[in-house]
Design goal:
The structure holds 4 protein chains of 4 kinds.
Chain B (H helix, E strand, L loop, with lengths): L1 E10 L2 E11 L4 E5 L6 H8 L7 E6 L2 E3 L4 H6 L2 E4 L11 H6 L7 H14 L15 H14 L4 E5 L7 H16 L4 E6 L2 H7 L2 E6 L2 E6 L5 H9 L21 E9 L4 E9 L4 E5 L6 H9 L3 E9 L2 E3 L4 H6 L2 E4 L3 H4 L7 H8 L7 H13 L14 H11 L6 E5 L7 H16 L3 E5 L3 H6 L3 E5 L4 E6 L5 H8 L4 H4 L2 H10 L2
Parallel strand pairs in B: 3-8, 3-9, 6-7, 7-8, 13-18, 13-19, 16-17, 17-18
Antiparallel strand pairs in B: 1-2, 1-4, 4-5, 9-10, 11-12, 11-14, 14-15, 19-20
Helix pairs in contact in B: 13-14
Chain C lengths: L1 H29 L7 H19 L2 H25 L4 H20 L13 E2 L9 H5 L1 E2 L1 H19 L1 H11 L1 H6 L4 H27 L12 H11 L4 H24 L6 H5 L1 H14 L3 H9 L1 H9 L19
Antiparallel strand pairs in C: 1-2
Helix pairs in contact in C: 1-6, 1-9, 1-10, 1-11, 2-3, 2-4, 2-9, 2-10, 3-4, 3-9, 6-7, 7-9, 10-11, 10-13, 14-15
Chain D lengths: L3 H15 L3 H9 L3 E5 L9 H16 L2 E5 L12 H10 L4 E4 L5 H10 L4 E5 L3 H4 L6 E6 L2 H14 L4 E6 L4 H21 L8 E6 L13 H10 L4 E4 L5 H11 L5 E3 L16 E5 L1 H14 L6 E4 L14 E5 L5 H16 L9 E2 L5 E3 L7 H5 L8 E2 L6
Classes of the chains: A mainly alpha, B alpha/beta, C mainly alpha, D alpha/beta.
The structure holds adenosine-5'-triphosphate (2 copies) and magnesium ion (2 copies).
Amino acid sequence: MNRESLLRQIGWFAAAVGLALFLTVLVTLPSGAPPLTTIFVLFQGGLGSLSKFGQALSVWVPLTLCSVGLLIPFTARLWNIGVEGQVIMGAIFCTAALRPFDGGGAGQIILALAAAALGGALWALLSGLLRVFGRVHEIFSGLGLNFVALGVILWLIFGPWKRPGIASMSGTEPLDVSLWLAKVGSLSVTWAGLGLALAAIVLAAVLLHRTGWGLKLRAVGENPKAATLFALGPRRRLLQAFLLCGAMAGLAGATQVLAVYHRLLPSISSSYGYTGLLVGMMASYRLGLAPFICLFFAVLNVGSIQLPLQLGLDSSLSGVIQGVMVLSVFIVQGVRLWLAKRGEAA
Amino acid sequence: MIVLSDIHKQYGRVRANDGISLTLEPGRIYALVGENGAGKSTLMRVLAGHTRPTSGSIEVNGERLSHLTPALARRHGVGMLYQDPLDFPAMPVWENFQLGAPRRTKRQVVDILGELSFRLDACFLPDEPVSSLTVGERQLLELLRLLDLGATTLILDEPTTGITPEQKQDLFNLLMTLAREENHTVVLVTHKLSEALEMADAIFVMRQGRLVCTLTPPYDEHELVSRMFGEAARGEVAPMPEVDETAAPRLDMRDVLFAGPKYSMGPLNFTARPGECIGLAGLDGSGQELFLRGLCGLDRMPGGKLVLNGREYGSNDFKILRRAGVQFVPADRLQLALFPALNLMEHITLAFPDRKEDRQKFYDEQCVERFNLRAHPDTHASELSGGNQQRLLLSLIPDDAALLLMEHPTRGLDAGSSRQVWNHLKERCANGATLIYFSPDLEEVLEHSHRVAVFYDRGLAAVVDRERATMETVGALMAGKPAAEVFGNRAKAAAEGGAR
Amino acid sequence: METFALTIAAVLMAGAPLVLATLGETLTEKAGIINLSLDGAILLSAMAAFAVASTTGSPWLGVIGGAAVGAAVAGTLGLIGIYLGQSQLAIGFILTLLCRDLAYFLGHSFSRQPGPDLGLWSIPGLQGAPFLGPIFANASPVIYLGLAAILFCWWWMYRTEGGMRLRAVGESPRAAFGRGIRVRLTRFAYCLAGGALVGMAGAAYSLAVKPGWGRPQGCEGAGWIALAIVIFGGWHPVRAALGAFFFAGLQVSGIYLQEVFPSIPAPVFQVAPFPMMILTLLAVNLGRVGWVQDLVRRHPVLGKLSGSWSIEAPAALGQDFDPKKGL
Amino acid sequence: CASEPEKKAEDKAPAKTEAPAPAPEAKQDAKPLTMGLILVGPYNDKGYSQAQYEGGKYLEEKMGAKLIYLDKVNPADRPGLTIPQVVDDLLAKGADFIVAGSDDMTDGIIEAAGQHPDTVFVHASGDAALTGKGPKNLGNVFGRMTFPKMMAGFSAGMTTQTGKIGVVGPLINAETRRLIVSAYLGARYAWTQVRGKDLKDLSFNVKWIGFWFNIPGVTADPTQMAGSLYDGGCDVVLSGIDTPEVVTVAQQRRDAGKTVWALPYDYEKACEGQGSVCVGVPYFNWGPMFLKIAEQVKAGTYKAVFDWEAPYWADINDHDKSPVGFMPGEGLSADNKKALDEFVAKLGSGELNLFTGPLNYQDGSVFLKAGETATDKQIWYLEQLLQGMEGLSSPK
Ligand SMILES: Nc1ncnc2c1ncn2[C@@H]1O[C@H](COP(=O)(O)OP(=O)(O)OP(=O)(O)O)[C@@H](O)[C@H]1O
Ligand SMILES: Nc1ncnc2c1ncn2[C@@H]1O[C@H](COP(=O)(O)OP(=O)(O)OP(=O)(O)O)[C@@H](O)[C@H]1O
Ligand SMILES: [Mg+2]
Ligand SMILES: [Mg+2]
């Protein structure tokens, strides 16, 4: 609801991007890489061909599920940093649901997706309960639970769920092909994945902007005391926010298992949870921008493998760029605020 | 000698201080009085360098400054004691004493502290955390600290809220000696006229950010009071609605105990009839806040029973009471009752989910027509003036609310809007609602109550009915005079009859 | 006995960097600033320390370099969080991820290169001493660094004027401002100081505990553990340090316990810090929840119990303060 | 090295003659044969991946082939990147055949090979061709690391003074069991047969960190692991993990005045600059294996088989012949070195097969009856550690 001219906003955003670009160049200089070429290679690597774009999309799906999910707690001023663990739990539950079957079809897949959503939601609920009834800040409970989840998945993969004979990085026994999600033509992105991501966006949009629920959630985040006066049931709202986000994160985990790796891996989450948080912040907690930023980050991710292939650069540069981007957004916001204050004072 | 000239302080829309000039001379005790929000604290904070005035100048010891900083103020011997003690609860006494002072070893600090507290026959254990002290002790410690820093101008912002009478007496004796013998300047910000009358060589009266007058002895209490609370607003005021004496009580409290975060009170026995307006009078922290918050279920009710419209409630669950028609409107609207970054429409939607469809219509009828809330429907609550905030809140209260609990209904409202608000509230009462409200503005209470419940020292001192409720009687009761003295014994009986 | 002493030595060594990082964060949080960037900062400063050390050939210059980088990261947080008034949590978190990738990107050319390390200090007097011998006769400098840091932090926080101000700005910026303390400056200063300690932790990893740089370096995640320990240690330097050693002990003993209880999955011992952090927080906060208060009122026994929980976070932790607004 | 050229000529000759001539020739003229190499770790990790990388370099210099590679291909370092995607990239960049470097890539490479049936795929480690799970165009190649591990164990057994040998193992699976058991057999032989001591006095203690490298808060810390082994009285510790902690710890213990040794893993030059703590390193020398494959691919004669290559016994450290080797370090005394050479000779001549019964599993059940020798399959799929070794056989 801010009545500032669109032009202004775009201007500020441009400023942020400019700053980010500048900082990136600053970082790449010592490595002796030609900055602009580097950036070009990155994007070409992510958008260069249809199949590349397909890969980018297949990264976009779980990333979007995470960041869109995160926007729900963000609306209530909640920092569900535990999303990483929730992705992992989703993947675990998904795998668990499929273990009894060595083959199958839509039925099993739907079951697996449901299980994944459940797993993520439950893991999120833990943070939620700790926050609402124990007043434990969700950041710390979330962090803790992330590591616990990581411990659990490693233990499962190298323990109870290990392949006959060999337990290894390569994770559990791969799923039967009949349980893989169907790809879009020759692209590596799947129909189901795209469907889920889009559904998540729509759901979040409707929930947050079209329903009383979203309004209540915002209100709770705005001022819990007043929320009590209005009898909005702050606690229930917060828990629901956690559950929803957890469920979406869980689905992200499921897509990792069913669409990308076709089995459970130690680092199944690809730390999309954390990246999702970055996206949420860069979108300054608004839904509108999130999917596009996700796409942008996905392109960076996919393009990054061209850095070692073509320029002999370390591909973690893409991560650097992402971080710098978000940081610049905050810096610009701060400067803006400060200038405003100066204005008042004068 | 300190001269404040034409001090202005603006907080957003609020003019906390509006062109104040005054002179403080050494060796004298001043009292600064005024209703809540008059701007007393703000002015004092400016003087102590804790707030930069929007405009105006301060002349200290011949030095002319646009504003002071805490450090500067200290150098000029200005020290301020806060309404809520401004100290570090988690840290031990001696550190609280030392912080901000020139470097010293712990031993030195402990010695000085001991010596000072001996002089004021107080006693502090240096290593005890301040959180374990009473408010009074914390105030005293602050005072010692200021003296130790060589403060010659002492500002005490309502120092006597929540300290015992004898502590208070000691404090006043101390201030006397400081002023008379050591030639200190003392400024005493207070709500309690008795204190002002007893102590002050001159009384500054503030009202809505302005300095309305400076009184000097001999004091005329009536004048003081009328100056403080101003003339009643002009224009016709709706008459008090009739109360049907025969109707069954709307509210009946039986041996109710309330427990707030700070203190607890009770057992309380009190009844209210439909259509009744009951004003709560009392100095800050005398218990009226807890009374309201407890009644609506925001503070806990460890014991007793509430009977609402004949239904008995053993516990005061907020939701249940709310469904039973209990509505609470806090004084601090933005902090407690509104969502700063949500707009009016959204507030309406939140309050009346079922009227989501015709909310525009609702807005026009309710907010604009009835409450002439003149603001664009998508303004943020945070951008509303105090008056409009109150209008919004009132318009959000459903018409069938049976029991209205309000803190300072007209806080921050000008005379005109106050009248509107009151007429509206009385209309509700006429339609059978019961209103229990609290206001620091005594005149307001007296004008708009069938009965006045006076609180003193965290307890219900007396309930006075309209005829007997005058500035004198209620004022006296608020200041702690026993009911017996205020009205003869016969009246006392009646008064207590009120609180059955 | 011998083996016990050796285990102690191992714990001291494993704990040293954790202690440094924990103390750094404790300083920062005592001043009221939350610095979430620990994990990334440690990694980046580990890289920087090794890079400096191997280019200059002097490990101690490396330590200084590490400290400088740590301080720089904290400084960024300080500028944006304190003076530009942005969310400390957000900035800290961004910095974590950013610094991590930055470390790998810039450190690329140093990975798995041979380089100097801090080596060991051998104390002639202690050679062959019964119990202390095995522990201190030939110990890494970082152990002494860690122990010294504990003493210094404790002394500074609780025995000096500066420490008093530090706690003051963390407890109540308003009151501190009222007493003429330059709140933001103070906070910023301790932000830097804490960052420097964190940087030293990074250096301790890449120059002593796990000499060398590479991917993985082996200290990934240590920062999160340190953050957990700060809370576990109740924001008190000594308790925090003990906490650090306690967890180091857990990890070391985990190695032995692996055989003793083969039925317990190995990760359990490694993950332990995190559930413990959560429980600590729970214990700390439960005391303030309404229904718990009622419970305690009813059963004084619980009151006694909760007394032992009495860990208090700095009252103004994470709240920003703008002197321009006044009180 | 003078012999190299003609040796190569010999090697090439048959290939040339058998080859359906034109195609490869044309190819060669068009552009050099290109190998697409997928590395699991950093190409400069001074370990497993660097060994493969240098194998690729060897190929470039020996037959003017071209190497294109992508390193750090694992879900942790390259989130969301799958093997088929990498393969597509490498083929797009002109790779003629693909070599996947790690056991972790098993499923991915099978999938990719299925997608590109007429490209040659080789999976270094892995057993698709053995189990017949994989498609026709996917072969496996691996050096018989069991032998260098035996030599490592042997050197350890010769070097140890306390009779206590430690192993820092990664995670428990058939491969790691296989290698560590080999090391144990080597050590046991040295201890009992060569040094003539009592088997009871030999302790061989295996500790698993739970992963190929350290993840704080998740795996056990190899630094502490190695430390605890040394503190526990082991004076020789073998490393089975990707990162160099063990040698570093050994160095530190040396500085502290302890007489201890260590044996790193994977990378030929791992002992360089480590001085006398380093007894020696069992390593992969992928060059010859890659060369052989490349030539067959070029000649179009490559058969997808399960190729488990034995060392070149004449000189296990021959860069051009031996796929695996054991590089003694300064820590191996002259006499021990002599003993080692004899040991190697025995192994080479086949006169000595350490996988000969009677051998019992850790739980006492029989692995090999007296006189029985183990088949490749038995060794490849080793189910448990052996009796006499301490440490977990399988994750509980
Ligand atoms: N920091 C602040 N920000 C915004 N408004 C403020 C602030 N401090 C005071 N005000 C407003 O300025 C006006 C004067 O406040 P002030 O505290 O000076 O009144 P007061 O006379 O001290 O009241 P009381 O008798 O309750 O202490 C009030 O309307 C108050 O809401
Ligand atoms: N809100 C703000 N945003 C950005 N920069 C600021 C802000 N406030 C102050 N600064 C700049 O930071 C520097 C220090 O400002 P200031 O003096 O207010 O902080 P401080 O002195 O460190 O803290 P304090 O005033 O509480 O002692 C000055 O250069 C000032 O311009
Ligand atoms: Mg005041
Ligand atoms: Mg300042």
